[in-house]
Structures are given as structure tokens and as C-alpha cells.
Design goal:
two-stranded antiparallel sheet, alpha+beta
Amino acid sequence: MDEFILIFRHQDGNKVASPEQIQVWMKQTMDWIGGIAAQNKFAGGNGLPFDEARVVHHNRVVTNGPFGEIKETIGGYIIVKADSVEEAVEFAKGCPVLQGEGNTVEVRRIAKSDGTNS
């Protein structure tokens, strides 16, 4: 069994949701993760708040960010255990993030500690 990271990408990062909407999304997300955990396939994850974020550029210039003006932001991730990328994709299809138009969940296999993919 491999581990896969599911990365939550949000479009229009400058839109601010109401506290009530955030609570609804958090409950939906916790229920979704709970369903994965009930199958013993949840390995971890975190949200990625925007405060205290920095971007280091190729020339070592550091800027504050990410900013809401950018088209896409990464809002968080989870790591799941799956027998195949197809199984990990099935988990991703249930992610509440996908309720937002243009939002995506990127699914990627995590390399083994020796650097191999399998």
C-alpha cells in the first residue's frame, strides 16, 4: 500500500467566506476525513493558513504571501493510504473543496524514503 497526498487548491483566494460558511465546510471536511479514517486509510494532514506565509524566489528574494490576488491558493492537504492512484482519486472525488467552482484536489504518490515510487 502506498501513500498519496491530496492537495486542496482554491481558486480566487481573495474571496472571504462567512464564519457560518467556514463552519459548514469544516464539518463537511471532518466528516469526509472521518470516512477515510474509518477505513484505516487516513495518514495525516493539515490546513495551511495564509498568515505568517512567505515565498522564497529563485534569486533568494523573500516576499510575504501567498496573497489573495493570486489566482490559486493551496488551502491544505491530507495524506491517505491507498492500493493505487485510482483509489486515492476516489477519495479525492468526495472532498468538500470541490464544491467551489474551479477548485481542485491534486493527487500525487509520495515517494518512499529511499526515493523510489514503489
